Amino acid sequence: MTLKMFARAGVALAALALPLAAVHAQEVKPAPVADLVKRVDIPYQRFTLPNGLRVIVHTDRKAPVVAVSVWYNIGSKFEPKGRTGFAHLFEHLMFNGSENAPGDFFEPLKQVGATDLNGTTNYDRTNYFETVPTAALEKALFLESDRMGYLLGAVTQEVLDEQRGVVQNEKRQGDNQPYGLRQYKQLEGLFPADHPYGHSVIGSLADLDAASLDDVKNWFRSHYGPNNAVLVLAGDVDLATAKTLVTKYFGNIKAGPKTELPDAPIPTLPAPKSDVIHDRVGAALVTRQWVVPGLNDKDAAALQAGGSVLGGLSSARLNNALVRQEKLAIQVSAGVQSLAQLGIFQVIMVVRPGVDVDTASKRLDELVADFIKTGPTADEIQRTVTSAVSRRISGLESVGGFGGKAVALAQGELYSADPGYFKKQLTALAAQTPDSVRAAMQKWLTRPVYNLSILPGAREAASDTAAPQKPLVSPPALKPANSRAEADPAVGPVANLVFPKVERARLTNGIEVVYAQRTAVPVTRALLSFDAGAVADPADKLGLQRLALSMLTEGTKTRNSIALAEARERLGAVIGTGASADRTFLSVEAPSANAYGAFDLFADVVRHPAFAPEEVARLRTTQLAGIRQELTNPGGLAGRVLPRLIYGPSPYAKTGSQNGDAATVAKLTRDDLVAFHQAWIRPDKAKLFIVSDRPLAELLPLLDRELGDWAVSGVAGVKDLSAAPVQSAPKIVLIDRPDSPQSLITAGQLTPVKGSDDLLNYRTANDVLGGGFLSRINLDLRETKHWSYGAGGGFAQTEQLVTYRINAPVQADRTGDSIKSLQTDLKEFLGDKGISDAEFTRTINGATRELAGRFETADAVLNAMLDNDQYKRPDDYFATITQKYRAMTRDQLDAAARRAIDPDKFVWVVVGDAKVVRPQLDSIGLPVEVIAAASVPGAN
Question: In sequence order, what DSSP letters do the residues of 363-414 get, joined into one string?
Answer without folding.
Answer: HHHHHHHHHHHH---HHHHHHHHHHHHHHHHHHBSSSSTTTSHHHHHHHHHH
